[in-house]
Write a structure and sequence with these properties.
DUF8150, single chain, mainly alpha
């Protein structure tokens, strides 16, 4: 058992999200099998177009992307440093 319930709760949430996605996919497959493409085609196009529009509105500047990349690298470096430190400690214990 972990010291914190947060990881367990997050894992449970992800499992629930996964199950919801699978259920929605199965429902969509049943729907497109039962309805002609003329019915569901425009609906699917509207969803895809909405997603594309949303993605375009979230565009970030090159400077922001570089900043995010730099921060991510710093985090990876710290994690690697922590891993190396714990390995050295384990070797000396």
């Amino acid at each position: 058992m972990s010291d914190s319930l947060k990881p367990d709760t997050l894992d449970a949430k992800h499992d629930g999200d996964w199950q919801q996605r699978i259920t929605a996919i199965k429902r969509w497959v049943a729907y497109i099998n039962a309805e002609p493409p003329e019915t569901w085609g425009p609906q699917q196009n509207a969803v895809v177009n909405g997603q594309l529009t949303a993605a375009q509105h979230v565009a970030t500047s090159a400077a922001h992307q570089q900043h995010v990349t730099a921060v991510a690298q710093e985090i990876r470096d710290l994690q690697e440093s922590d891993t190396e430190t714990s390995t050295v400690r384990d070797d000396h214990d």
